[in-house]
Design a protein that fits this description.
Length: 281
């Protein structure tokens, strides 16, 4: 099979198994790079050594992150198991040590600052919607007009990560802004649409956030996803039970949500430092 035939079969198989559009896109991208690497070396039959060499190349030369390496292994494993109907090569049995990193979180004052400097109504609506409901970028872009329930004050997030539906709260401030936004932009299908209709560009949202962050002078290394991290952390700071936060975020495992315990000031602010007991002259 040539590269195009492999990619076509892979795409067909993973689509039939009902993987999300974003996952399919990510897997195909990772697989395409692997096949190009093999092709460039003129390898006719891929061995375990070839796969190990490729993984080493991704890590040492391409500087892939933990999540990128996991994606590469998942894509190649799927290829062997589901497309080739062969055992997964031993070279792919790699257990990566997960880096112990904490998410960047913006304070409520910093969030307010970002929204204040965002003067364009559409741009402000985008950023407020993401923060107010802890949405992933893809979830925001997939929101349709009918997903906003102003009667029950809920937002229906459909087919989020892992093809799961969930409901999140609809903020009064968001509803007010959405009504103003609707009068001006008159979206037809999606809440946030491009100039010619259809889905809005994810790159445009990133650009909006980056421009607003720059205007504020905030030096933290933040991205659009930081708004979601901040949403979860601020709920925890306010004393919200972590299991409720897990449901709102759409996390499958509680362990994914518990990372916010490490960045929340809820517990640390209640603990008195032993330095406070010192008498310093």
């Amino acid at each position: 099979m040539d590269k195009q035939e492999i990619l076509h079969k892979f795409s067909k198989h993973i689509t039939l198994e009902n993987y999300s559009g974003q996952t399919i896109k990510n897997y195909l991208s990772a697989l395409k790079l692997f096949l190009e690497y093999i092709q460039n070396l003129h390898i006719k039959e891929v061995t375990d050594k070839d796969i190990k060499d490729y993984l080493y190349y991704c890590k040492s030369e391409k500087k892939y992150s933990y999540s990128s390496m996991k994606l590469v292994i998942a894509a190649i494993s799927y290829l062997y198991k589901k497309v080739f109907n062969k055992p997964v090569p031993d070279a792919l049995n790699v257990k990566f040590r997960k880096p112990s990193t904490l998410p960047t979180v913006l304070s409520p004052k910093e969030i307010s600052k970002i929204l204040s400097v965002t003067t364009n109504l559409k741009h402000k609506t985008i950023l407020l919607l993401i923060y107010s409901a802890g949405l992933r970028l893809s979830e925001l872009l997939n929101l349709r007009i009918g997903d906003i329930d102003s009667e029950s004050m809920k937002i229906h997030v459909k087919q989020g990560k892992g093809k799961k539906d969930r409901y999140v709260m609809l903020s009064e401030n968001v509803l007010k802004m959405l009504r103003e936004y609707y009068k001006v932009y008159k979206p037809k299908e999606f809440i946030i649409e491009g100039q010619k209709g259809g889905k809005y560009s994810p790159k445009s949202v990133q650009s909006i956030f980056n421009a607003s962050l720059k205007k504020t002078g905030i030096k933290k290394k933040a991205t659009v996803h930081t708004l979601r991290h901040s949403f979860a952390t601020h709920l925890l700071d306010d004393g919200t039970d972590i299991r409720y936060i897990q449901e709102l975020l759409g996390h499958k495992r509680l362990a994914s949500t518990q990372i916010y315990n490490h960045v929340s000031s809820y517990s640390t602010n209640k603990i008195k430092s032993p330095a406070d007991n010192l008498i310093i002259k």
